Here is the input.
Amino acid sequence: MKHLVAPSLLAADFLHLQSEVEMVNESAADWLHLDIMDGVFVPNLSFGFPILNRLKAISKKPMDVHLMIVEPQKFIHEVAATGAYLMNVHYEACTHLHRTVAAIKDCGMKAGVTLNPHTPVHLLEDIIQDVDMVLLMSVNPGFGGQKFIEHSVEKTTALKELILRKGLNTLIEVDGGINLDTGKQLVDAGADVLVAGNFVFKSPDPKQIIQALKSL
Ligand code: DX5
Ligand code: ZN
Here is the structure.
């Protein structure tokens, strides 16, 4: 499968959200990545349901929602109501991850499990068969514009090996510090979806950057 690109709206100009989403609509992007933060799981706040519910009306790309919050199981119905295609919950935030993954799928969404940079891939051994995607954080979650953690490439390789060993087709998404150089390393290691925030939105030509990420 050719890899996908998911621009992260966190880096967009929030005074012009509609035109930023329209740019993504017109681009080669596959998904729109949306980062929700609670100030508890991560040391920052971003945006929440009032924004997601408005984006639903204008985003032509499937919404890939990344919840950086404690107790994400409390909000599964609310996320589903935004029309989200995929709901990512953090491994570190879910005590009953299997139940949460099942509930996400019962609500008609794809289920993603996200790993912080320090969380090893082998902890997915007994849940990987139930998830549609694993999101590997290649920075510590909470902020855009951080430096890529190089070890994420090895981690992508290890995750790909786990998925192949189990005979699965689980997607691998990677998020944080992605540009053409880090993106190429990740695609070569087996990444299926590249998230990019600052690299896309702070560029003078975001559509061209999205196309360049697609062409890796
Ligand atoms: C970080 C978020 C990312 C962020 C990526 O906590 O999960 O999605 O927006 O931003 P860049 O690509 O700028 O590192
Ligand atoms: Zn994210």
The mean pLDDT is 98. The longest helix spans residues 151-165. The beta strands are 4-7, 32-37, 63-68, 86-90, 110-115, 133-137, 171-175, 193-196. The longest strand covers residues 32-37.
